[in-house]
Amino acid sequence: MEFNLNSSSAQQKTHLLRKVFLNLFISAFIIICYFYVSEVFGSISAPYQKNSKFLVQFGFTLLLFTFFSVLAGPYHGFIAGFIGEYLYQLAYYKSIYLDWCLLIAFWGFLCGIYKYKPLKYQEIKNVIYTILLFVFNSLILMLLLIYIQKQYYLINEKIQFIFLNYGLTFFFQSLITIIFLVPILLILYDKALATQERYWYFMILTHHPVSASDHTFYLKFGKTYVYFCSRCSGVIIGGMIAAFFTHLIERIYNTEFNPELAVLLCIILPIPGLIDWGTQRMLLRKSTTETRLLTGSIIGSALHLMSFTTPYYNFMLFLLVLYFSILFLLMFFGHRKEMKLQKKESEDHFPSNKEYQINKKFFIYDKNVKYYFHSWFGKFWPRF
What we know:
three-stranded mixed β-sheet, flat, single chain, mainly alpha, Arp2/3 complex 21 kDa subunit ARPC3
């Protein structure tokens, strides 16, 4: 991300805001992926809550969560694992199993300890270390799973039964799911995005030329920097988060989002974005990447909530026309103001029309005098 900031304090503030945003974005992304993938393939805890027999199956959710935990690090793995599993249980289970939330969070923490770094998996020893770490983590979680089941759930069952149907099941599931596949995915990721430093700045993603790169931000994948338009990215992120939470509310409470509340939010939420964009377009202030992301995400939330306003179709149509009219008016007057400023700057650098005519007369007069003296002296001095 390019910033034209003069003071070091402003640079530190920008760096801090970027760090906070990226950490929140990474955790939210893993949580949302965990929830949606669990809806299709079942969560990590699903086989053990639904079955009490020895049943080993490929855990796609476990594979994806482990891969993301290694890329993101231990803290993201812990937070995303706990919240993702808790939200899934809240939506699909009759009871909340906090022990499983903590187990999955602990798994994410253990896998994230040996965090990914660019070119790390170019060396075979690091691949071996990763495989050994997964084996070690699987053994630790197997022992914790056996202890929790024996201590709180299956008190009267024999330890052999718990070991076979819970501990050994998890170990073999991790063996066929992650111990070899995740290192292969990390090697492919490393080769594709970390072999050399690259900057992907495409107009289709940024919507701004390189000279206006302060309107963009980047995400780093390995050694590859991918640039995105700040406000448009905020709209997409806000829409995704709003879609996730409305879906979650529908699953937990078994009800649809209130249309009246959706209309009210659609009236209020676009206002900060209009103010931020409008004041910048009118050249009253200069927006920042952080405000563009924030206001864009608010607008994205409003765009998603419009899908719940069908009973108020005519009013929403009027609201859209009103907001777009304000947008075009701001665009028109901002363009006029920009043209006036450019005209004033050009007048400061170049002479006015009156000055140009005076200079032109003197230039013609000087040229005629020179020609006259040249002709007169030429009679006496031909080589003059």
